[in-house]
Design goal:
By secondary structure, the protein is an alpha/beta fold. It has helices spanning about 15-30, 40-50, 65-75, 95-100, 115-170, 190-195, 200, 210-225, 270-315, 325-350, 360-380, 395-415, 450-455, 475-485; strands spanning about 10-15, 35, 55-60, 85-90, 105-110, 175, 185, 235-240, 245-255, 260-270, 355-360, 380-385, 390-395, 420-430, 435-445, 490-495, 500-510. It has four domains: about 10-140, Response regulator (Rossmann fold); about 170-270, Beta-Lactamase; about 275-350, Orthogonal Bundle (Helix Hairpins); about 355-510, Histidine kinase-like ATPase, C-terminal domain (Heat Shock Protein 90), CATH 3.30.565.
């Protein structure tokens, strides 16, 4: 960058007017502007109002020596940065040069000095000062940049602390991994659930996943990187001691402003308690159904057993039996008594309370649905409730609850992820006796539906489409309870590609079941609140 450009002002300080004139002519000829002062006092007066780019200062002045003027200029904050070139015809010795330079002068010239040397010295000093200014400006900009960077780092650190506090406060295990499936970070809940410390898993490839999920992790991450949205996945997690437990896993990706995927979130929820509760409920229902069937079988055995025991009693009373026949009759009588004892014992193991009370269907439905809320949320299932009236029926609360529990369990077992389960309760009429009013309960789901070949067998005992997960007694028991209460049940189902699902409609009378009249036409009627649409 050229420094010898026009408009740069130079102050010439010299008590010899002829010298001032000649120096100013030389500087003006080189393109500089000039100002003049003949004494030290005049110099300070000019510096109060204007700061030149450079000062040419004579040492021998009438009032103040140039050494003192230089010292004062350097001592002032406003003028300390002005370059000074000292000139002298009297003080030309080595000591004078050293004193001038140590006093703050940028250069020291002994007069007489040639115009060329004077201009070269002036330009060199101005060039040096310009470089110093640029370096100072660069240093200032660098300092401003460092200050701004420090502010940004401080703000980022505060946000990181806030985020870490949020993650640590979460009851769900949150794990961050990179594109190579290596753990970058995880929170306090992850340590509690998986029993691995942070330093034990960071940098490793998912030591806390089951073998099945580890084999699928690369495929899952690739799908996430392509932008696919993954539903919640139920799988098995693995603790540090090797034990596996059920978890629900959600996935999310972290991207840059340009949409590039940089890392992934994996959020885990331990569902061990839920699974145990569901299993306990399933076992309870299975035992209840098996107990009911055992009770029914024992009851059915009692009738022919009574007849056989009576016949054996009559044989024992006969007098014309020989000894061998009498022994056989006594043996048969003993064994029949043992069978009767076993039958009575089985019948006493399962006996429902016969207490009849007013049972609110909607209230029981709400109690049962509450147990499915967490599972439904994890699978994205929408639960819709439509209670058109506070319908109540007369019956055993345990039986009505058992009826609803079996029907709802079937709906939630068959509906897929992101499906819909609808429960509708209201007043209605019986299909078989149109004048009989009562409660209409409808439970529908958007599952795959029941094949027509299976639909005709769903009320048979031990028939199931759920393989190892069902005993095949739920709907059979439910139908028995409904018929006991004088009601009816109908199941409709569709397995189409666009429209599929199952709808179970139950009618329960408000009071005892009305007797069927011969003159009443068997016409189909809908419940009062209209047909069901999903």
């Amino acid at each position: 960058m050229m420094v010898d450009t026009p408009q740069q002002a130079i102050l010439v300080v010299d008590d010899n007017e002829a010298n001032r004139y000649s120096v100013c002519r030389i500087l003006k000829g080189a393109g500089f502007k000039t100002a003049e002062a003949g004494s030290g006092e005049e110099t300070f007066q000019l510096l109060c109002n204007n700061h030149p780019e450079l000062i040419l200062l004579d040492v021998h002045l009438p009032d103040i020596l140039g050494f003192e003027i230089c010292r004062r200029i350097r001592a002032s904050r406003e003028t300390r940065s002005i370059p000074i070139v000292m000139l002298s015809a009297s003080f030309i010795g080595m000591d004078a040069r050293i004193a001038g330079l140590e006093g703050g002068a940028d250069a020291y010239l002994a007069q007489p000095v040639s115009p060329e040397e004077l201009l070269a010295t002036v330009k060199a000093v101005l060039r040096t000062r310009q470089l110093q200014r640029e370096a100072h400006a660069g240093t200032s900009r660098a300092q401003e940049t460092r200050d701004e960077l420090n502010r940004l780092l401080q703000a980022l650190a505060e946000k990181n602390l806030t985020l870490q506090a949020f993650l640590d406060a979460s009851p769900l295990a949150i794990v961050v991994c990179d594109l190579q499936a290596k753990v970058l970070a995880w929170n306090t809940a992850a340590e509690h659930i998986f029993r691995w410390k942070t330093e034990e898993v960071v940098g490793r490839k998912f030591p806390f996943l089951s073998v099945r999920l580890q084999s699928e992790q690369q495929s899952i991450l690739q799908r996430m990187e392509r932008g696919e949205t993954l539903a919640a996945v139920e799988s098995l997690g693995k603790r540090k001691d090797g034990t596996e437990f059920p978890v629900v896993t959600w996935f999310a990706r972290l991207t840059t402003a340009t949409g590039e995927v940089t890392s992934f979130f994996m959020i885990f929820q331990d569902i061990s308690e839920r699974v145990r509760a569901e299993e306990a409920l399933r076992i309870s229902d299975r035992f209840a159904a098996q107990g009911r069937m055992a009770s029914m079988l024992a009851h059915e055995i009692n009738n022919p057993l009574t007849a056989v025991m009576n016949a054996v009693y009559l044989l024992k009373e006969r007098k014309d039996l020989d000894v061998e026949a009498a022994a056989h009759v006594r043996t048969a009588s003993t064994e029949l008594a043992r069978i009767a004892h076993i039958s009575r014992h089985i019948f006493s193991l399962y006996r429902e309370s016969d207490a009849i009370e007013s049972v609110n269907i909607g209230q029981i439905a709400d109690e049962l649905l509450e147990a499915y809320m967490e599972n439904a949320a994890a699978r994205g299932i929408t639960i819709r409730r439509q209670y058109r009236s506070s319908a109540s029926v007369a019956g055993s609360r345990a039986e009505v609850r058992h009826l609803l529990a079996n029907t709802l369990a079937n709906a939630f077992d068959h509906v897929g992820n992101d499906g819909i389960v609808m429960v509708r309760v209201g007043s209605g009429y019986s299909w078989k006796a149109p004048f009989a009013t009562g409660c209409r309960l409808v439970i529908a789901d958007t599952g795959p539906g029941i094949a027509p070949s299976n639909l005709k067998s769903i009320f048979e005992p031990f028939f199931t489409t759920k393989e190892q997960r069902g005993a095949g007694l739920g709907l059979w028991v439910a139908k028995g309870i409904i018929e006991k209460l004088g009601g009816s049940i109908r199941v409709r189902s569709s397995v189409g590609l666009s429209a599929h699902g199952t709808c179970v409609s139950v009618f329960l009378p408000c009071g005892p079941a009305p007797k069927r009249k011969k003159d009443i036409s068997m016409r189909k009627t809908e419940c009062q609140f209209g047909p069901l649409h999903l």
